[in-house]
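Please produce the structure of this protein holding fe (ii) ion.
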Amino acid sequence: MLRRNFLQTIAGAVIASLAGLRSGRAQGNEALRFDHGVASGDPLSDGFILWTRVSGAAGGSLPVRWLVASDASMKQVLRHGIVWTDAWSDYTVKADVRGLTPGSTYFYCFEINEARSPVGRTRTLPVGAVAAARFAVVSCSNHPAGYFNVYRDIARQDDLDAVVHLGDYIYEYGLGEYATEYAEKLGRLPEPSGEVTTLADYRRRHAQYKADPD
Ligand SMILES: [Fe+2]
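Below is the modeled complex.
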């Protein structure tokens, strides 16, 4: 709960009115886009956290619009809002969405200027006794060691209640270190090439993983 309260406080501090979308357009950000996909997690019975990252920002604060809909084509929008982001968070975005129906599937995306992110699918937690639940469980996602086709396969399954990642979501090793012997052959050379140790290193490595289409 502490973490959620913290996130909520942060989100509350940066949420602005819809009118901010137009007035908040920063100059020099002509090619804003969503290169690192979308994600959702930390579900409650009435909401969840949505995530994305804006690429191409030249600086300043940017208003990112989030949308939650009941359909994959995002026509029946049920909730929407604005979250501001800037270089402090590497232009990542977190929206704390509430007021939804328990045990329900929703679709979501983000928009900035004319760019729209891929559409994600997510679910709220059920309330009360549950007869069954279906999970996908993953671990040890090592980018230079192989492809992420398992993620693609999981994304295609629409009967999952949640995806649980047990850890090793990214690996910190550099080229020549653990499990990188096929990296060049696979076209998956680690970025940066050395072991990641700094915040900038971690952001770059995390971004490389997130840029994988799968
Ligand atoms: Fe592992």
